[in-house]
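I am going through a labmate's work and have reached the protein record below. What it holds is a sequence and that sequence's fold in token form. Please read both lines and tell me whether the tokens look consistent with the sequence. Do not assume that whoever made the record got everything right. Thanks in advance; the entry in question is below.
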Amino acid sequence: MESSIFDITVDILVERARDARAELVKRFKKTKPFRMEPMSDTERIQQYMQWAGTPMEDELRAQGMDVDAIHMNMQQLIRRQLNG
């Protein structure tokens, strides 16, 4: 079955959006987000503890976030806070 012009157009737009996002991530990787101050480690841990193990965690997974990597990074941060 042949793809319609609309399917082809959407595929092209999705690919361009993906490429644009990748380019933005590459260009602004170490840049502070607009109008946001860096969060302290203590604040990050508090925020993490509020959603870890709750239904919000499932929502984050559904949005495509790598929650397991977040857990691992936050556990390392917590260990550093306790040791340092």
Summary: The chain has a mean pLDDT of 90. Residues 1-31 form one domain.
